[in-house]
Request: fold
Amino acid sequence: MAKKRPQTKAKQPQLKDGEIPVVGAREPCPCGSGRRYKACHGRAAAHAVTELVQRPFEGLPREGDWVALRELVPAATVELKLKESLPEGVPSVTLATVLPMAWPALRRDDGSVLIGLQNDTASGDISRDLADTLQRALTAQPGTPIQGRRAPADGPRLQELLDPEGAFEPVVHSGFEFWVPDAEHSTPEVAASLERANAAAIPTVKLSGVDAAYWCETPDKNHLRWVMPYPEEQLLDALARLHAAGRSNLGEGTRLVGSFRAHGLTVPVWDLPTGVTADDVEKPAAEFAERLATALAADTPLTPDERRARGGLTNRQVTLS
Reply:
């Protein structure tokens, strides 16, 4: 008998990373390595969509306001300007804090697009998830809500879609009537959602004299929550210097009580007496901004009193995200 020739496997072509398609986790990786996709190129893809981006809004105009609208403000809208011209039939794109039924986005009957900011996201990058939602909303049929999904790991981020020179001017609302042009003729589901949202909304006002500072009213006392763009350690040192010197308040009866951490930024919080309105705190806030600028520029070591003040502020930090 003739001797059998050894069987050989044809060598599979090695694909570049950018050419490798997504397949099932347990299927062979298309790159030809012989390993399952989840143990090969799928590992990097999974990591890319789950890795937490600490400052998802960094690089966008008014980063502090993005953080405030995501975490602190109940009802607000902002007109967005895209780098590219809007598709035909889309008159406008509006960012909203939240939408009815917690929809990620909505293409209205008139073709305009609403994007919800206060939604759970499927990946660790809020910016990429929002960009994916925006792109799908721009091509959806009018009158269609957009459902959430995990954005592709190589999809664009908001920073790539929005005009970096475009204005970002939040409009704070007392309720959520902006959801529907004609609330009286909305569906029962949307009407019920609107009623629940309005009942839970805390009265909130954006200060006009300083950036990303929001006054809010609660039953027991009022508050000022101010999203600041400075590095956390530097800001805490500066706040400690002012606090130790008795210069961290915003007027009589007010008190710096701590801060939030949110999306890579620090948000100092002041307690205000019930009678102190947003207008009342405009001038004190502007004066505090000047004191803070001086404290931020100081480079001497903290004194013992300042270190104690810093420890107290650090102990009263709450991480929102």
